[in-house]
Write a structure and sequence with these properties.
single chain, 2 helices, 78% helix
């Protein structure tokens, strides 16, 4: 396995972990207290960032093949 493939795999795994954390929010019911709301926003930001990194890495690997 090439280094790029390992990096891509790691970034995809990080995204999946972040997405699973975000999915835990589905069990919460409004109204949300300020701490819960801040946590939800933070989890969304982390998930979005990890998805961007995974997509970017995958595209770079695909382009260079």
């Amino acid at each position: 396995m090439m280094v790029q493939d390992k990096d891509t795999h790691k970034k995809v795994n990080n995204f999946v972990k972040a997405l699973n954390n975000l999915k835990e929010i589905l069990g919460k019911k409004p109204p949300f207290d300020p701490i819960t709301e801040a946590g939800m926003v933070s989890l969304f930001e982390i998930c979005f960032e990890q998805s961007w990194k995974a997509m970017k890495e995958r595209l770079e690997v695909t382009i260079h093949q």
